[in-house]
Inverse folding.
């Protein structure tokens, strides 16, 4: 399946783009996406981030589907 | 009060914007107490270099949803007359204001408590990212202390 993934802050710096389409087997979960991305972008392994699915922070075993808006969020620093 | 309000402002929040906001409340005479939080950009020294500005970006759609949830939670928890939140996006220089939180209530105690709750929730829950830019244009990414 094709997943649209958004990157922010220092994560976008590591990936070199703000969003991209990632190909992953159907019924994959957040953990599997993270592993694929950490393989693709080795520097992600040293960064702390959370995954938001449809604008909510999600657990690692959450299943993904192609309609989801997925975002990798580094630590927040508003205010 | 349930409608979504604009929170993000491009660039710094000016003292005159804050003054105007206070002035607008002079017609609301059930209010007896305002409390205001202003977040200001610090010229921190990091590894020998001084922060000149913070360049803010956000996951805007999620951030607006979170601001809305925080507003609703605050209104249901505290007896407030009104509440305003403004946050900068883009570059804000050291010494300038990047966050303006304004609560109003009939009495002071609830205003004090609601303001602290709001600011802490904003720092914790809202996906805003600050890039601390030095004079030589290099940068580091800021992380909020919990």
């Amino acid at each position: 399946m094709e997943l649209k993934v958004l990157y922010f802050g220092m994560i976008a710096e590591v990936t070199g783009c703000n969003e991209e389409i990632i190909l992953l087997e159907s019924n994959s979960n957040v953990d599997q996406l993270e592993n694929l991305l950490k393989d693709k972008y080795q520097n992600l392994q040293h960064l702390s981030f959370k995954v938001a699915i449809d604008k909510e922070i999600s657990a690692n075993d959450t299943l993904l589907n192609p309609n989801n808006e997925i975002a990798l969020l580094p630590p927040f620093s508003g205010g | 009060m349930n409608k979504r309000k604009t929170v993000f402002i491009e660039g710094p929040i000016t003292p005159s914007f804050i003054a105007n906001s206070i002035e607008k409340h002079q017609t609301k005479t059930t209010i007896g107490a305002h409390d205001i939080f202003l977040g200001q950009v610090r010229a921190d020294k990091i590894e020998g270099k001084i922060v000149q500005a913070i360049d803010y970006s956000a996951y805007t759609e999620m951030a607006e949803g979170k601001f809305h949830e925080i507003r609703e939670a605050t209104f249901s928890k505290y007896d407030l007359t009104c509440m305003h939140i403004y946050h900068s996006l883009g570059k804000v220089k050291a010494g300038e204001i990047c966050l303006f939180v304004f609560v109003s209530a009939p009495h002071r105690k609830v205003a004090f408590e609601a303001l602290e709750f709001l600011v802490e929730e904003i720092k914790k829950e809202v996906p805003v990212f600050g890039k601390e830019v030095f004079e030589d244009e290099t940068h580091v990414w800021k992380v909020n202390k919990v």
The first strand of chain A starts at residue 2 and ends at 7. Residues 22 and 39 of chain A are 13 Å apart (CA to CA). The two ends of chain A are 38 Å apart (CA to CA). The interface with chain B takes residues 6, 8-10, 52, 55, 71, 73-79 of chain A (CB under 8 Å).
